[in-house]
Structure formats: C-alpha cells, structure tokens
Amino acid sequence: MFELLGIPPQALFGQLLLGLINGSFYALLSLGLAVIFGLLNIINFSHGAQYMMGAFVAWMGLTWLGIPYWGALVIVPLVVGTTGVVIERLMISKLYHLDHLYGLLLTFGLALIIQGLFRNGFGVSGLPYSIPSQLSGGTNLGFMFLPNYRAWVVVASLIVCFGTWFAIERTRLGAYLRAATENPTLVGAFGINVPRMITLTYGFGVALAAFAGVLAAPIYSVNPNMGADLIIVVFAVVVIGGMGSILGAILTGFGLGIVEGLTKVFYPEASSVAIFVIMAIVLLFKPAGLFGRTA
C-alpha cells in the first residue's frame, strides 16, 4: 500500500520510530511541567535547562567520576532534583501567592542563567556520550532495523510516565498532594507537612526532566542549547493536553511525536510547525486543552 503512495515502508516505519522517540521526550518533559503546574501552579520555564543539566551531569559523572550510564539513571535525577529543591525553597516558595507571571519570569531568568553558566564552562560544540554496551546494536524486524537503545528510551519513558500517573492519581500520597493544592490548611491539620510536600513535588518534577536528559545524552550531543531547542515544543504539548493534566501530558506527548514523524513522511515542509498548528486548532475549540478542566 505504501509503495502505491511512493513511500518506502522502511522510511515510514523509520519516521514512526523517530516520532516515538521524540514523543518519549515530549511526554517526560511535559509530564514534569504538568506535575509542577498542576500541583504548585508554577509555570516552570527553566524545565528545559534542567533537562540539559541532566545530560551534562551524566556526562560529567561518566567522564570525571566513571559513573556508568545505569548509575547515572538513578544518581543524576537525585542530584538535579536536589538543586530543584534548593531553588524552590530559596526562590519559588516566595511566589505562590502572586500571579503566575512572576513564577514564569523567575524561572525564565533561571533558565538563562543556567544555560549561560554551562555555555561559558563547556562551549556550544556538543559533547559525546556513548551508548551503554548492553544496548548497542539493534534488531532486524524484517520491515525495519530497530536500534536497541531507541527501543529502550521508548520503554523507559512509558514506564516512568505511567508509573508517575499511577502514583499521583491512584495512591494515598497522590491524594494528599492533590488535596494540598486545594486546601493546604485542612491537609496540614492532619499532621502532614505541606511545605515539605510541595518542595519535594517540585524536586520530583525537576528530576523527571533530568531523567529525560540522561536518556537523551547518548542520542543527541550534550550541549547547553539542547533544552532551549525543545522547551517551546514541550510547552505547546502541555497546552494541547491541558495545563496540569498528568494523563493529558503523557498521551499528548507520545501522540504528537507520532504526528510529527508522520508529517515528515507525507509533508516534510510542515513538520516543524505541525504541533503549533494543532495547538492553535485545539485552543480555538477547547481552550482548556484536550484533557484540561474548564474553570
């Protein structure tokens, strides 16, 4: 059928795989944004810079300390998430009772500072990060060649995304988090330390970005601009899915990655703007997003 359209099957499935990989990063990053906005009402514009930090900390751990990829998957989110905890306590906690614009401006400024520091320290040429030997090579599926590491990225993203959704929507801890955003005084009356919970939630959202950065390091060159190139698209994904919607962020991230991949096959000229066209259409008919709640 695809030959009738003049499209080789290998090209189609290759672009679908590329779309799934991009969708994995869209889903992970938009999930972190959705967690932070949905539970803290902060628009975290520094999320792309924290994603970049994850890739750089993984590179530094491997190059300077010999920490392998598998160790970095655990250690890097904890390290970068801890910096998020410090930022929340020292800066963001002062803005919860102000307009969203103040949080946006603060985190935008933080993103510029973080990118500037890494640009001055490491330059902009990009640094290589090798694929772990256990995931090198690929599998011949007959209709396409599937690189093992790319398959791992998709599987790991799915596990982390839906694990996070389950923890927030289906567990007692998630119920406490959601209740704390609605009525922190009542939740505090039950002996729960609400400020600490909010701080750890922000740190967890930042850790998700860092985890995505570690996954991205072997695929893309590690450079200070890698987050800035991605964050605008991720914000569009969050808006389409619905600001603060956990499930919306996940499904929309993967879905739009696939749409972007298919667009590169059938209409390559529109691939860079397809997501933004979809965002405009969604905002016209459903301003709260596909999975968002209307006020």
Quick take:
The chain has helices spanning 9-40, 47-64, 69-90, 100-122, 148-170, 172-182, 184-189, 194-216, 228-241, 246-266, 274-285, and strands at residues 138-140, 145-147. With 295 residues, the protein is mostly helical.
Task: Explain the layout of strands and helices.
Layout: H1 9-40, H2 47-64, H3 69-90, H4 100-122, E1 138-140, E2 145-147, H5 148-170, H6 172-182, H7 184-189, H8 194-216, H9 228-241, H10 246-266, H11 274-285
Antiparallel strand pairs: 1-2
Care to describe what's here?
The protein is mostly helical and 295 residues long. It has one domain. Helix content is 69%, strand content 2%. It has 11 helices and 2 strands. It has a two-stranded antiparallel sheet with strand order 1-2. Strand 1 and strand 2 form a beta hairpin. The mean pLDDT is 88.
